[in-house]
Structure formats: structure tokens, C-alpha cells
Amino acid sequence: MIHTLGCRSGSFLLKGLLNEPSAIQRFSKEYIVKDHLVKNYVCHLEDLKFKKNKREESRKRLQEEERSKTYNDYNCTLMYREGQLRKLKVSSLDLYLEKHGISCSRSTLKQDRVDIVAAHIA
């Protein structure tokens, strides 16, 4: 019953029908569920939607920050000494390779790029 309630109330929520007390009462009577359970589930769905939107905004912000970084934003020598080169993204490794005129095909794997950068620094 709970699974059905979840599917049904999710579609009602999207249409905004459960924001009204009378709609909640109609729903609870139709599916034989207590009002407070329906209200709690609707609040839960709204929380999930809110958290999803926050995660999306955060990811977009981080992606934008990552795209705006330049070669000078990374200290590859220090990262090499600390063994942190593998934590760089491929685009960051490509910035290093491009800056130092090291050619690399687009099909080169990330670990191979890390090895190339490490060999160049060493």
C-alpha cells in the first residue's frame, strides 16, 4: 500500500493537488490512509525535491568553477610530490600537457595522462 501511495501522491504533488487540505482528505479517504500520514509523505517528497535542487545547484557551481580554472591555478609540482596528481580531472591534466607542449590523443586514458605529467615533472 505504501508503494502505491508513493506513486500516486508523487503525481498529485506534481500537479499541486495535495497542497489543499480538502485534496489531502479526498486522497486519504480514497486510498484509506490517515491524513497525517499523507501530509508527512508530501512533506517528505517536498524535502527530497528541495535537496535534489540544492545538489544540482551545487554541482553546477562546482563544474563552473572547475571550467574557469587555468594552468596557474594548479601547483602540479607540489601535487606530484604529495602523490595527488591522480586526483586531478582530465581537463586539468590537459591544461598541464598543453602548457608544456606535450601532445596527447583524446583517447589517452586518465592514468596514462597522470603518468605522462609525473614523468615530465620528475
Question: Outline of this structure?
Answer:
The protein has 122 residues and is mainly α. The chain is built from six helices and no strands.
Share of β-strand residues: under 5%
Radius of gyration: 26 Å
Number of domains: 2
- Give the beta-strand count: 0
- How far is it from the N-terminal to the C-terminal residue, by CA? 63 Å
Query: Mean pLDDT, as a whole number?
Result: 82
The SSE string, one letter per element, is HHHHHH
Q: What is the overall shape?
A: rod-shaped
Give structural notes.
By secondary structure, the chain is mostly helical. It has 2 domains: 2-63; 69-121. It contains 6 helices and no strands. It has helices at 2-15, 21-30, 35-68, 76-81, 90-99, 110-121. The N and C termini lie far apart (63 Å). Mean pLDDT is 82; it is low at 1-6.
What labels would you give this structure?
single chain; disordered N terminus; 122 residues
Record the SSE blueprint.
Layout (H helix, E strand, L loop, with lengths): L1 H14 L5 H10 L4 H34 L7 H6 L8 H10 L10 H12 L1
